[in-house]
Write the C-alpha cells for this entry.
Amino acid sequence: MLDIIIRVNMSSLEVTMEKLPEGYRNLSGRGLTSRVVVDEVNPGADPLGPRNKLVLACGLLADSGVSSSGRLSVGAKSPLTGGIKESNAGGIAAYKMARLGIRAIIVEGMSQNGHQHVLVLDKNGGSLRPGGDLSMLGVYDKAQRIYDQYGKKVGAVIIGPAGERRQVTAGITNNDPSGHPGRYCGRGGLGAVMGSKGLLAVILDDTGASPVGPVRRDQFLSRAKQIARWIKETPQTAEVFPKYGTASMLDTTDAIGGLPTRNFSTGTFEGAEKINGYALHNTIVARGGQGTPTHSCMPGCHIKCSNVFPGRDGNAVVSPLEYETIGMVGANCGIDDLDVIARINYLCNDYGVDTIEVGCALAVAMEAGLMPFGDSGAALAAVEEMAKDTFLGKIIASGVVTAGRVLGVQRVPAVKGQGMPAYDPRAVKGTGVTYATSPMGADHTAGNTVRLNIRHSQREGQVRASRDAQLGIALMDCLGLCVMLVTALKDRGLLAELVSSRFGRNVTLEVLLDMARETLDIERAFNRGAGLTAAHDRLPEFFYHETNPVSGTVFDINREDLEQ
Amino acid sequence: MIKVTYRVNVPWMPAQKGVVGLVSAPTVKELLRNIGFEAEQHYNVLVAVNGTNRLPEDFLEEGDHVVILPALCGG
Ligand code: SF4
C-alpha cells in the first residue's frame, strides 16, 4: 500500500516506477520530501540547475477517510532561501496520488533545449508528454485546458508563468474538488524549481485505480470516527473555521498587535473590521451565487475552512481567500477592501506567485514611495505588471528582499530571503523565534505559537514554545495532515493508532515524533551544508529596536537564546 | 473593587460587552467567571488587554479594556 515512487528524469524523459525503499516505509509528507532531498541533492547544488530535485509526496493517511489528511507536500532546495524547503497544501492531488498507490514523485534533471512537458500518471504508470501548448498560459487557463483534455476529475499540479520564468516567488498549485486550481504550495519558490526542469503540470488520473483499504479495518474506522467526533465537539473546528475560515485569525492578531500593518510599522489596522472573518463571511453570504463561506479543499475534510469568494455579480473571483493573503495584501499594504484583495489574490494565483511574498513586496514598494499605502488602484496595477513582465512586475515577482534592495528600503521583513507572514514577531514572539530558527525561513506554518497559552509579547518561554510548535507541526507535516486539525486533536496517540491500523504494523507516537525530530535535524544539517549558519537565524534588525506601538515591545530574544 | 470594560468576540458565544466590577480577585480568570465562561472554556479563548494577551492568572487594573477572542491555531 502506498509503496510506489515515481522517478521522472527530465533530461532523458524517462519515467520509472520504483518500490519504496524499506528505510522510507514510515516516511511521508515533509518527512519524505526532506529525506529524499537530503539523500539525493548536494546542498551546494544550484536550486535552478539539473542537480536539484523536486519531490512531491502525500501523507501516510491520504485517501483513508480521515478528515484533513490529504495535504500535498512539495520539497526541494529553495531558490529563495538557499536552503531546504517544504511547502504543503490541500487540494486533491495527494488524494489522487494515494489512490494510485504513489507515495512520492521525484523529478530530476532538466529538459533539453527549453522543451516543456506534462507528466501524466494513471493506473498503468506514467509518461511525459509535450506541454508546449500550455506554455505561458495563466494557471486558470492551464487548468481548463487540462480538464478539456483529461477530464474534470483529474488531479492537476500546475505552475504559472512565474514558475516558467523561474521567478523565486513562484509556487506550485493544485486543484480542489470543485476544480479551482488555488491550493498553493506557495512558499520558497518551488514553482521556479519545477519550471527550471521544464515540467508545467502533473496530471493524476485515478480512473480504474483500486486502492487498498486499511489492514485492521474496524480499529482504523473507529479511530477515524473519533477524529470526526473531536472536530464536532471543538468550537473552533465546528463553528469558527467552517463559517469564518482562517480569516477568523484577523481579529485576534489585531487585538494583540500582531497584525502587520503598513509594512510592519504597527500591529493593528483601523480597517480590520472591513476585512475580518465576519466581513468575509457576510460579504460571501450576501452575494450568494457561486460564493460559499464553507468549502472543503479536499475530499473528506470535516472542518471545511476554505471558501469561494464571489464578486458583486455572484461569480467566483478566487478560492480560497485566506488570512495570510488578507493580512499581507490587506492590512500590511493599508488596503481595507476585500474585493481588491480577492482580485490581487486571483492575479497572483493566475500568474503563479506566493501572495505572502507579493504582499510584503508591495508594502516595501509603498514604503519606498512608489505608491501610497492604501492605494488599491496602484497596488492592483503593480500586481498586473507581473504578468506583463515589466521591470516593476519583475521586481514584485522577485520577492521582498529583491524589492527592498532595488528600491533602497531598509525595513525589509524577511528571514533567509523569505518574506514574513501575517504575524508580527514583536507581538507573537514565539512565532518570531520560529521565523528566525526554522530551516524553512520566515514561515508561520513551520511552528506558529499563537495558539499556545503563553504571554505572546513577553520574552520568557518563547524559545521553548517555538521548539515545541516546530516539532508539533513537523509531525503534522510528516503525516500530510492539515494544521487546522491541531485544536481538535485531543490525543496525538490516535495518529499512531491510525497509521498502525492502516498499515497493519505497530507504530507508536514516539516513533512518529522521532521521525519529525529527525526531519528537523536533517533539514538543519542540509542548510549548514548549503552555507546557512546560525548567523542567518536572525530577524531583520529593525524588529530589535523599533517598538511595535500596540504591544509596546521589540523582538528581544537574543542570539544565545535562539541558538539553544 | 476595580472596574474594567470588556467585549466578547467569540463566535460560539453570544456577543456582549459592558463594564464589570471585580471584587474578590481582579484577575482575568475572575473576569471570565463573572461574564459566564465556564472554567473549561478558558482554554479555548484568548484574552487581549490593551494590545497584548494575558493568561487567566494575570491581574487586571482599573480601566483596562479586555477583548475575549477564540484561541485559534494559525494555519
Ligand atoms: S481544514 Fe481547511 S485547509 Fe484544512 S483540509 Fe479542511 S478545508 Fe483544507
Notes: Helices of chain B lie at 28-34. Chain B touches chain A at residues 9, 11-12, 43-44, 46, 48, 51-55, 58, 67, 69-75 (CB under 8 Å). The mean pLDDT of chain B is 92. The CA atoms of residues 45 and 70 of chain B lie 4 Å apart.
